[in-house]
Design brief:
Helices cover 47% and strands 12% of the residues. By secondary structure, the protein is of the alpha/beta class. It has 2 domains: 140 residues, HAD superfamily/HAD-like (Rossmann fold), CATH 3.40.50; 65 residues. The protein has a 6-stranded parallel β-sheet. Strand 4, helix 9 and strand 5 form a beta-alpha-beta unit. The chain is globular.
Length: 214
């Protein structure tokens, strides 16, 4: 069944920014006394905000400086401004949705500035027609459902008719709480934590138009 609207996560779904950001976080946590693998970071920290990463890391023993969040944002923005690739096939997905007349939005836990940096360098800001929504700006980041419900309201589509495209358990949990179907992008194959939150997994963005029926 075709959706009434599609809400995309940003990092790891539209732009390939997640891996380099996780590498930066891993290196910082190791420097401050909490060595972790990228796999453990992805399982336990992906889909949150830098603020929630700091809270969780400190609770687990990381001795992060008081100004770490602000300083990390500065370095992350500089890294993203230098270059961040698109997820392969995502432009074809947006084209298919436009051709089918299905509206779409972005619902990201990232800051508005981060979305402007990553999407702007690929000319994608206009593709979303003003429907770029930040959980941080809203004050209710995922896994709360508010961000997705807000996007649906702005799109003028009932929440039950929206689908979400996510790559994190927190995002899938937010979609479930919002009463929306969720398709989980898992390019490396099995993703038990994402599936456990009710997401239907797919491995290649080229599959998504067919999954959505467009």
């Amino acid at each position: 069944m075709k959706p009434g609207a599609v809400i995309f996560d940003c990092d790891g779904v539209v732009v390939d920014s997640e891996h380099p950001t996780l590498v930066m976080i891993r290196d910082d946590l190791e420097r401050y006394g909490l060595p972790m693998t990228l796999e453990a970071l992805e399982a336990g920290y992906i889909g949150g905000t830098v603020e929630t990463v700091a809270e969780k890391a400190r609770a687990n023993g990381a001795r992060l400086p008081e100004d770490w969040v602000a300083e990390f944002y500065e370095r992350m923005y500089a890294m993203l401004r230098a270059s961040v690739p698109l997820i392969s096939g995502i432009v074809d997905v947006l084209d298919a949705l436009d051709s089918a007349g299905i509206p779409f939005a972005m619902g990201s836990n990232g800051t508005p500035e981060k979305m402007q940096i990553t999407l702007g360098q690929h000319g994608l800001i206009g593709r979303f027609r003003g429907h770029l929504y930040s959980g941080q700006a809203l004050g209710r980041p995922k896994p709360a459902p508010d961000l997705f419900l807000h996007a649906a309201e702005r799109l003028g589509v009932p929440a039950a008719d929206c689908v979400v495209v996510e790559d994190s358990p927190a995002g899938a949990r937010a979609a479930r709480a919002a009463g929306m179907r969720c398709f989980g992008y898992a390019p490396r194959g099995a993703h038990p934590a994402l599936a456990a939150e009710g997401a239907v997994l797919f491995n290649d963005m080229a599959e998504l138009p067919g999954i959505l029926g467009v």
